[in-house]
Give the backbone structure.
Amino acid sequence: MAWQGRAKSWRASCATSARSSMFTGIVTATGRVRSASDTAGVQRIAITPPDGFAAGIAAGASVAVDGVCLTVSAVAGNALEFDVVAETLARTTLGERMTEGVTVNLERSARLGDEIGGHLVSGHVSTTGTVIAVETADGAHDLRLRVERDWMAYIFVKGFVALDGISLTVGETWPEAGEFRVHLIPETLERTTIGACTPGDRLNVEIDAMTRATVETVTRIMEAQ
């Protein structure tokens, strides 16, 4: 039963966080990687956000970096520093992207009473997807991505998915090929890094938790009959 293996890997990833933060998938800023250094198997990343983004942030706060929930280890001048463990580097694109000068999507964790402009996002990446086509005909800007085929059990037309922390609606799917398409509006292209994607780029993918829970519950009931 494929869903059991997926569920176990997701729970193991979530268990690395001592507390739970939530995000909305509405990227509020982009920042630049100032430095990345390895110490005893942990990568220390320093990111410079735009003015005002870090107001009130202290060590222990949660920030989504390209859709990955990270804990602020220190605030050093105008930079936020994060310690990233090997599991996170291996499961996400952070291990290959965190080099000086790279631009990343940023979102502060949601607070009680905040508007949920996208959909609830945990910052625990499910898998990564590869951009196989950027389609810009007739003024549109679409991305077609490929993931491991098992993940298509949770990706539906009009369903939600988060790509590099951006809440997006699925426009079309090809389950047998492990592929799906998302449509990007000008606002998203302007405010995030996704407009710079080219074929071959990898993005962090987080499956909508409610969709996943529903699919796995129904699958479990049907298999028990």
Summary: Helices lie at 2-14, 86-91, 94-97, 186-191, 209-224. DSSP finds five helices and twelve strands in the chain. Residues 1-18 have pLDDT under 50 and may be disordered.
